[in-house]
Design goal:
InterPro entries: BACON, Ig-like_fold. The chain is mainly beta and about 375 residues long. The protein has one helix spanning about 1-30, and strands at about 30-35, 40, 45-55, 55-60, 65-70, 75-80, 90-95, 100-110, 115, 120-125, 130-135, 140-145, 150-155, 155-160, 170-180, 180-190, 195-205, 210-225, 230-235, 245-250, 255-260, 260-265, 270-280, 285, 290-295, 310, 315-320, 325-330, 330-340, 350-365. Strand 7 and strand 8 form a beta hairpin.
Length: about 375
């Protein structure tokens, strides 16, 4: 009889142990995460954490920028737009009334925002399209002048510039705006059809005693009717009606005063006039392969774009002089007088300068009305 009682006591103890173990398992399983979607980009958005719980739950975030709300067994996590470059992290702790807790990590990536274009683009007067690489995690807008249109494309942003028919260089600034910041890009349209007009010319010329004196005059650049790349400087020469020829290269934006060009004949003096260039070494040259060049400059800070041409020979050239081969640079364009219709030197054919324009520079200005 005593053996039977001991057996039943052992069975009872086993039952109690088993019951306690089941209670512990139930407590562990009373709260668990079923699904979560709380890995965010830099843009303001929400995600959810879904849990399984045997009792009501509460949730709290350890970071102010990460906020939570609870509806049943779903925790909604909200994050604002983030403009930092490096990602950030938070932890949401969820509890139930049985004192079970789970901790869920929340992450938000740093924001990407870049406009990979240059600050300034120089384009011809023809209609053209250019793509600016853009990558942004943020919504952005683009402000632009009426003669520029644009659209978002896979590669970034396409801009189309309409043909410039104003007769002057023009500029337009587009402004990208996002929560991350702004980016400005300026487009300049400038070409052969923007050259003609009124200019202020500054140069040095021979004064009394062959000293150099500075002068400033207004001139007109007239476009040739048959060759749009050729222009004539009217008013530069002191001889009325004589115009100096120049040529514009739309690829390099170079305006060159042409050398060795026949300008006309003065019957009363029996003078033949040609353009010549002068080298810094003091020699006169009528070779048509030489010219006096100037690369266009535009001050994009000005309200109106007026091209400026500072004539300067940057390459230099070699020629045979009295002392042998000489290396020099061209520093002037001028009008020279010859005794025959041949710009050659010697045999009393070269009679001398009529005009000389040393260190010439010209800038377009508004025409007088």
């Amino acid at each position: 009889m005593k053996k039977i009682n001991i057996l039943w006591m052992l069975i009872g103890c086993l039952f109690l142990v088993t019951s306690c173990s089941d209670d512990d398992d139930s407590a562990v399983a009373s709260l668990q995460v079923i699904k979560s979607d709380v890995s965010f980009t830099a843009i303001a958005t929400t995600g959810t954490i879904e849990v399984q719980s045997n009792s009501a739950i509460t949730a709290v975030s350890n970071q102010d920028w990460c906020t939570v709300t609870v509806n049943g067994n779903v925790v909604t996590v909200a994050v604002p737009t983030y403009t930092g470059l490096v990602g950030r992290n938070a932890v949401v702790e969820i509890s139930n009334t049985l004192d079970s807790k789970v901790r869920v990590p929340v992450s938000q990536a740093g924001g990407v925002w870049y406009v990979n274009g240059d600050d300034l683009y120089g384009l011809s007067d023809e209609e053209s399209t250019i793509t600016i690489p853009v990558k942004s995690d943020y919504d952005y807008t683009v402000d632009m002048p009426a003669w520029i249109t644009g659209e978002k494309v896979k590669e970034g942003y396409n801009f189309t510039l309409t043909e410039n028919t104003t007769g002057n260089a023009r500029k337009g600034t587009v402004i990208f705006k996002s929560q991350k910041g702004t980016k400005e890009i300026t487009f300049v349209q400038f070409g052969v059809n923007d050259i003609a007009g009124t200019y202020e010319a500054t140069y040095s010329t021979f004064g009394e005693g062959d000293d150099w004196v500075s002068e400033t005059v207004k001139i007109e650049l007239l476009q040739d009717e048959e060759n749009e790349a050729v222009f004539y400087a009217d008013g530069l020469s002191s001889i009325r009606g004589v115009v100096l020829p120049l040529k514009f290269d739309g690829e390099t934006y170079q305006l060159s005063a042409l050398n060795g060009q026949y300008l006309g004949f003065i019957e009363s003096q029996k003078w033949y006039l040609y353009t010549i260039v002068r080298s810094e070494a003091g020699y006169v040259h009528a070779d048509t392969s030489l010219s006096y060049p100037a690369i266009a400059e535009l001050d994009v800070d000005d309200e109106e774009l007026m091209p400026f041409f500072p004539f300067k020979d940057k390459k230099g050239f070699s020629f045979t002089g009295e002392t042998g081969t000489i290396k020099s640079f061209i520093d002037a364009i001028g009008v020279y007088v010859f005794a025959s219709k041949s710009p050659t030197f010697g045999n009393n054919n070269n009679l001398g300068y009529y005009d000389i324009f040393k260190d010439l520079s010209i800038k377009k200005i508004k025409a007088d009305h």
